[in-house]
Design brief:
Layout lengths: L1 H18 L3 H18 L2 H17 L3 H17 L5 H21 L3 H17 L3 H17 L3 H14 L4 H5 L5 H10 L8 H7 L1
Length: 202
């Protein structure tokens, strides 16, 4: 619980710094979080930091540094089977998400889809629905960015209908999730059956 709370807190602080265009503060927060992760031997926190670094570097157009973060996640994922199964699965998920974002920055939609689909099959086999929903959300964004709007809307609608407790993970994907939510809303007819779903999206 402490690890999860710490990761969420740093993620929120980093997003606030980014929203204020204070990338220096964002990097400093990630440095602090990574140091804490090494001190406590919290591999999941370290993996979470590398995902955030990947996103931040891509935002800055620094693909080389983003690639280095993905390489670090590769190492963590390779070593994670020696840790607990839950930790291994989450690190694998973080790695897949980082690989997907980097692939999209390089206009390599197929690579992004392949990474997410592989990780999704793994977590589904371990019955981890929360991580599966996160991966499906990113996959929907990948399809959306790749101009496969029908696929994106269909998949994301399934995510939203599966659980309404996923809102934090959805918002964690950043501002681009707003366009996908709007696309699903526009594609949903207003009926008594869809009334609650529409209210949820709005």
């Amino acid at each position: 619980v402490l690890l999860d709370s710490t990761l969420i807190a740093y993620r929120v602080l980093v997003r606030i710094a980014i929203s204020r265009a204070d990338t220096g503060q964002a990097h400093a927060l990630l440095d602090h979080a990574q140091t804490l992760g090494h001190t406590r031997r919290w591999d999941r926190l370290i993996a979470g930091v590398f995902v955030e670094r990947t996103r931040l570097y891509l935002r800055e157009g620094r693909l080389t540094e983003a690639s280095a973060c993905v390489a670090q996640l590769d190492k963590l994922a390779a070593a994670s089977p020696a840790v607990s199964l839950a930790t291994s699965t989450e690190i694998e998920t973080y790695r897949a998400i980082a690989v997907a974002w980097l692939a999209m920055a390089r206009n390599q939609t197929e690579n992004a889809v392949e990474s997410l689909t592989s990780a999704l099959q793994s977590v589904e086999g371990r019955y981890n629905e929360y991580l599966a929903l996160r991966l499906r959300t990113v996959l929907a964004l990948v399809w959306f960015r790749g101009h496969e709007h029908a696929r994106a809307v269909d998949l994301f609608r399934k995510v939203l209908s599966t659980s309404r407790d996923i809102y934090r993970s959805i918002l964690d994907q950043g501002p681009e999730i707003g366009q996908l939510l709007q696309a699903v809303r526009n594609d949903t007819r207003s009926t008594p059956q869809t009334k609650d779903s529409i209210a949820y999206m709005e």
